[in-house]
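EI: anyone free to look at a 239-residue chain?
SC: sure, send it
EI:
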Amino acid sequence: MSQGPKVKGVADVVFLVDVTGSMQPCIDGLRANIAAFVQRCRQPDENGGVPIRDLRISVCGFRDYAHSQKVPTDPWFEQGPFEVVGDSVAPLQAALAKLQARGGGDEPESLLDALFKVASFGESSLQDAPDAMKWRPGVRRVVVAFTDATFHATISAEEGRGGDYTSVGQVFTGSKLKLIVYAPRHECYDNLGAICGSVIEFYTDDIKSAQRDLQAFTSNQESFRKTLEMLAKTVTVEA
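SC: here you go
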């Protein structure tokens, strides 16, 4: 999927959130601080760089594909439309409020499946609505994932079934996506970072305490707000 000429100051961002049972504090933390992310995206950087003047954000959730086959009321992927971000962040807060942490209880989850699906949204045209789940041509495209679990090394969902890290890396490269993941330190994330060229932000070095540590990381309002502001700075520089 070719982007064509790059457009300055324009970005599409997907927040991809693990929505298994332990993740409600993270969802709540994002909802409480999403305004800080948006505000920072609109500020010029220290060198007078162009802020993001045209921003769309989509909120999506993922669980475990195998679990969803047993419990159809817990779909493995929940997809929200791209919201054109205006003066109010209420639509984004509402989208985050719709994400309900449930299911799970075991590991791993289906992050690779979700990444492959998001990267395969396709590219929009003039005929598509502004909220269409397609990446706009020429804009900076960023996927930001939050999780407290490991993930399956192969893809089970129809999109990319049988694929692996390499498949995700190829589709991310082809779609020119930047991936930033907040996760516990684990070999699977080292592999993901190496193959997809992604940025992995480890909030804990102990996978056994990942649920507790993510809750602490996202529940500290001042600290988490600063985290999202730094994330926005990264997105702004990229755009």
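EI: DSSP finds eight helices and seven strands in the chain.
SC: 👍
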